[in-house]
Amino acid sequence: MLRHLGLSPRKALGQNFLVDRNIVAKILDAAQLAPEDTVLEIGPGLGVLTWELARRARSVVAVELDAGLVRWLRALFAGQPNVRLVHGDALTVDLAGLLAAHPPGPGGSAKVLANLPYYITSPLLMRLLEEGLPISLAVVMVQKEVARRLLARPGTKDYGALSVAVQLRTHAEIVAPVPPGVFFPPPEVESAVVRLTLRPLPEEVEDAAFFSAVVRAAFAQRRKTLRNALQSGAGLWDKDAVPAALAEAGIDGGRRGETLSVAEFVRLSAALRRFRIEPEKSNDR
Ligand code: SAM
Q: Where in the chain is the domain with CATH 3.40.50.150?
């Protein structure tokens, strides 16, 4: 197909196309699509998944960066009014606006499906979660090593800001391990299909951006104690108040940030928030 289109796989765009029906079926099964769902697909490529999604969902919004592939997809889906193709970068395109323009029908919800280009996995997942997009589920193909990070437990080397962001907002599970041979060209790494079922933020997290800043500060200098990492962090809270906030949250400041559970991060962020430094309001008078 690529030869026919005069294209060749672009490594820089993470182009490893799925060529195995079983894996496509596993991704579709994991998504539990309902006829009134809206699906946002990142990187439709040659359209193998898109085609199946168009048959099962109310609308499919597919964002593809490669102009050559977009030309092909526009021709392929010309007679399919429920497929909206967007030529753009999934990291910067207005995803909230696209979802608002294609709301799910009664009883449906918005879901994200993607065989992700691996070079954007972390920033894209962070974006999907931190922007609070109205999605109920995401089924994504990622590198096995990233799948491990998504599910990592505190105190392990894989545990980081991405693990906390994902575990705070979703129930994460590995649906299937995926060998390189199901892609063309085969990548150098093993992969996995992961399902993220979204859940509401805990009530104590009143400000998601502040919570993320606390987590980032705690992981920024992994070799420092939590107390020191927070005292040199962000400038969003009074650093002299860090010991009091740690005491209030019941967390020993001599621990390292990477040992904190998600629940402990929630308590810590709520405590630090009381010592937040408000941004200066210069135009008030
Ligand atoms: N979905 C297809 C499949 O499963 O065969 C293709 C998957 S391939 C791993 C990743 C796709 O994402 C490619 O089509 C690539 O051009 C596209 N892509 C790469 N970077 C992108 C970005 N920043 N935004 C949107 N699409 C991107």
A: 2-198
Contact 41, 69 (CB under 8 A): no
Residue 270 near ligand 1, beta carbon < 6 Å:
no
By most ligand atoms within 8 Å of CB, the mutation choice from 66, 128, 146 for ligand 1 is: 66
Task: Calculate how far, in angstroms, residue 46's C-alpha sits from the geometric centre of ligand 1.
Answer: 9
Tell which one of 65, 95, 139 to mutate to probe ligand 1, the residue whose CB is within 8 A of the most ligand atoms: 65
The C-alpha atoms of residue 262 and residue 163 are separated, in whole angstroms, by: 9
- Residue 120 Cβ < 6 Å to ligand 1: yes
With 50 as the cut, is the pLDDT of residue 284 above it? Answer: no
pLDDT of residue 282: 42
CATH for the stretch 2-198: 3.40.50.150
Whole-angstrom distance, CA of residue 156 vs CA of residue 34: 37
Amino acid sitting at position 61: V
Q: Which fold has domain 208-284?
A: Helicase, Ruva Protein; domain 3 (1.10.8)
63 lines ligand 1 (CB under 6 A): yes
Per-residue pLDDT tens for 185-220? 999 999 999 999 999 999 999 899 999 999 999 998
What is the location of CATH 1.10.8.100 in the chain? 208-284
> Is pTM, for the whole model, over 0.85?
yes
CB of 14 sitting under 6 A from ligand 1:
yes
CA atoms of 26 and 139, how far apart (whole Å): 10
Sheet architecture: strand order including 137-143: 83-87, 59-64, 38-42, 110-115, 137-143, 191-198, 170-178
